[in-house]
Protein: DNA (cytosine-5-)-methyltransferase
Organism: Cyprinus carpio
Amino acid sequence: MTWNLFFQPLDYERNGTLMVKYQIHLVLCLKTRIPVLHQLSGRSNPFRTEEYPYTLKQRERKTLILFSFPLFFFFFFFFFFCFCPFKQGARGRLRGGVGWEVSLRQRPMPRVTFQAGDPYYISKRTREELLAKWKLEVSTTAHHCPKGRAIGSLSESSIGIDLSCVCILQDGRGFGIGELVWGKLRGFSWWPGRIVSWLMTGRSRAAEGTRWVMWFGDGKFSVVCVEKLLPLSSFHNAFHQPTYNKQPMYKKAIFEVLQVASTRAGKTFLTCPESDDTDTSKSVDMQNKQMIEWAMTGFQPTGPKGLEPPEGKTANCFLECAYQYDDDGYQSYCTICCGGREVLMCGNNNCCRCFCVECVDLLVGPGAAQAAIKEDPWNCYMCGPKAQYGLLERRADWPCRLQHFFANNHDQDFEPPRLYPPVLAENRKPIRVLSLFDGIATGLLVLKELGIQVERYVASEVCEDSITVGIVRHQGRIMYVGDVRNVTRKNIQEWGPFDLVIGGSPCNDLSIVNPARKGLYEGTGRLFFEFYRLLHEARPKEGDNRPFFWLFENVVAMGVSDKRDISRFLECNPVMIDAKEVSAAHRARYFWGNLPGMNRPLTAMCTDKLDLQDCLEHGRTAKFDKVRTITTRSNSIKQGKDQHFPVFMNDKEDILWCTEMERVFGFPVHYTDVSNMSRLARQRLLGRSWSVPVIRHLFAPLKEYFACI
């Protein structure tokens, strides 16, 4: 019995031409091999020979034909059985038996975890600061401690644990912000972690019945169901000794969580004297052993009570929201909770506070909000005659507390600046301003936006275009006095007294971007000392306790020695503020001054244009979300090393128009469109100006001291 493959030629005529094609047959023959003769010429059957004088149909009666099908089926089964893997226990086995690409099994749908609440994003810098504060608690003691040093000697108040973002849990299932817990994820042993706020993660809120957990050891975040959480006091049940012996990350996590637990409980573990690296390793192992034994015995003597997080304050929330004002001049958020949907605004002309209905009904009493709505005008609880309203009690020393809270006392190389308590609303007066290197009157524009009454605004400026913009846009309310070098003490006495002195000397000779810079003591850098001179002339005399504020600005990219010298003369450290947080352009600047709350977080308002697309005219598309720092040079508009223009219009790259640059800086549209100035001249004016949202952020606390419209 043999298999024979026949190629049967089938000839036919097409358009009078003899055509030949072949048909393949696979035949199982029971006799001797049948010779295959190919007779492509002639009309006779090619399978008729002298030895076998019968046709193919006659031979089919002698043979048994079992299969006749196309040849590709044969090759398909051949490759399938020879090359497809069927090893079930092989390492790296493809899913679905032979892989998702070959298998008929349907790929499962990706699992998406639902998170309730709108997503909330914080800036990368803020999130990194929060993580750094959190890790500081364990990183400072994670290294080897010196002789006799007590582990757990750090206080959580000193390391800045972020409990200000504590949100009230509405599901009543425990595990609040800051608690130390054990969490269980699939494929892992019970792992120590800490409940954190969703703000710290930069993600969305956790759904009801779940918590955000930051794991010790690697610092990663996970959403865990409360059923998969245990308090740290269940150490005896959750601790896994084999994992502790095998995994260094687990050992590190146990060490870190017990460091925090010992800090909260006030427990100390003394180290042993060390002489070399071997002794150091043994000392650390001994500390771990002592802390584990302490945890196994129930965290005595305080027990689980000592592991509770300390009481937190709403510091960060208040810092961000306290001095944010809407277009109507009132606070954007409730004075108590820094939130609120429906708010009550104070009827006092010089008070800009507001209180949400929820806080009023909760703290003052049910129905208090409706009573306040009916009262017209309504004076808020900070302006009212009584000191206590329900649970709200106004402290007698609240102005001093507020100023100490916002004190700029970082990097204490200098004495803290003098603090001025807020002025009572009925005693506030309009502000008098001395602006040096005024530019296009950004300071006056911001004071008007904040609703602060300006009695006098004296400006020193030498650029004719800038003076023209100031005169036209502010209807002659600015008193221009010419070159700052010509202003004398006598002039200050005649024009003053002043409540606010502001200025920013030219940065050309200070910026390290300029290769021909002359530094602080030559060229335009020396103009800083003119600001310093006039600042001292404008200060109140001894015995004059009126509030006096000042602000000096300059570029961040300056030499270290220049920055140190400026700080030494002004006797304070600068605050670095980048306008990218509140505008569509990068513009990092140093600010020296004594304004309240200069170092508070910079938070964008709903009216700020954070993306370049929001600043463009109709029909134009932004290629970038934010542009680099716009300077007086025309090529500063181009972006990146390839010098791309930032805008697409009609399928072509284009520069920023003047009106669009004004929106980027926060100015009103056509603010610099005066005196038929060219586009380059208007860009020079904007390149030397301040970012309006940044100055609004710095000037906002002045509403507590001066009369408002």
Q: What stands out?
A: DSSP finds 21 helices and 23 strands in the chain. The two ends are 111 Å apart (CA to CA).
